[in-house]
Amino acid sequence: MAKRRLISSLLAFGLPVASRVSEDPQNGLAFDLLRGVMTGHANGIITLNIEEAEDSIRERVRVEFHEPYRTLLGHLRHETGHYYWDRLIAGSTWLEPFRALFGDETVDYQGALQNHYQQGPPPNWPEHFVSAYASVHPWEDWAETWAHYLHLVDTLETASSFRLAIDAVELPFESFETDSLAQPEAPNAVEFLELLNAWGRVTVVLNELSRSMGLPDFYPFVLSRDAVAKLHFVHTLLTSVHS
Questions:
Q1: Domain count across the chain
Q2: Which of 27, 142, 201, 223 is 20 to 30 A (C-alpha) from 207?
Q3: How far apart, in whole angstroms, are the C-alpha atoms of residue 210 and residue 114?
Q4: Which domain holds residue 213?
Q5: CB burial class (10 A; 0-12, 13-18, 19+) of residue 129?
């Protein structure tokens, strides 16, 4: 179910989604759903530890890694972020704008990963990243931001399909303005801010509903201006692909 929801979103964005097995052996996408493996991406093949489909196992891992959120759909969205970085950004005109926001991806990845697991994220990570794991390396920052954007769009589209009138609810919510964007003058700035602020209103309501049931927050994140700028970059990229 998570994989089908993922593919549906990718197709809606107009992204290339060709089977690595039957359509595009060089650049296509494939999934290995296996037991006892590390979830990850390599050369178009996304490997998922299927044991995390068991709630108790996934929740244990989430707690061990001090994560506020962990789902199979989240894993799949994150790993496709790595895949589409290779397809859409590497070697393209998007690379330098990417580096300006996310940093230099040529920094030693394995060393950065080892440092993260030994020392943890920097204390000020919430000021710059959408999640603690995003602070590991520019590639992980990109993948986490990409996944976050897909969460945002899919949830809003689902709410809209059920005609939920979130705008009619009075909420203690401070809207983002153009000064939060990396490119305030961008043609899609207003469109993106409307999307982002709709997301803010929806998550306030959903968090309150979760608390009413004694459950953890539906959306356990706070978006900084730096994170918003990176989300705007993803939005701009996907808008260009779709057009």
A1: 1
A2: 142
A3: 35
A4: 91-242
A5: buried
Q: Are strands 30-34 and 45-49 parallel, antiparallel or unpaired?
A: parallel
Is residue 80 one of the residues assigned to a domain? no
Residues in Cβ contact with 43 at an 8 Å cutoff, skipping those fewer than 6 apart: none
* Distance, CA of 225 to CA of 76 (rounded, Å): 26
Report residue 48 as tokens: 């998922």
Q: Are 228 and 180 in contact (CB under 8 A)?
A: yes
Give the pLDDT confidence of 111-139 residue by residue, as tens digits.
Answer: 999 999 999 999 999 999 999 999 999 99
pLDDT tens digits, 150-159: 999 999 999 9
Q: Is residue 34 part of a domain?
A: no
Q: For residues 224 and 227, give the distance between their C-alpha atoms in angstroms, rounded to a whole number.
A: 5
Listed in sequence order, the residues at least 6 apart from 153 whose beta carbon sits closer than 8 Å to its beta carbon are 9, 195
Reported confidence tier of residue 174, pLDDT bands at 50, 70, 90: confident
